[in-house]
Amino acid sequence: MSRDPGDVLIRPLMTEKSMRQKEELNTVTFRVRPEANKVEIRTAVERVFNVKVAAVRTAVYEGKLKRMGRYQGRRSGWKKAIVTLQPGHKIDLVEGA
Fold first, then answer.
1. Structural domain total, the chain
2. 91, part of any domain
């Protein structure tokens, strides 16, 4: 099942580590839908940003356990995709806005 690229990518993750990896390793990090697979992530990035993708790595994060007095709950889990671009391709994200 193929999803619309706008449904797969939620937002780019702009942390110190991801910005360093962007400069040194030509990778971009995104928060993606938990049910999206690597093939869907690759096609979504290639179609939205008009670049060629070399590799996609994913990591699934479980939501943290949080308490409010005697009640406890859990934050929702999420999925991160680290997309490595082929040499010569680049994605310009708004930095420091």
1. 1
2. no
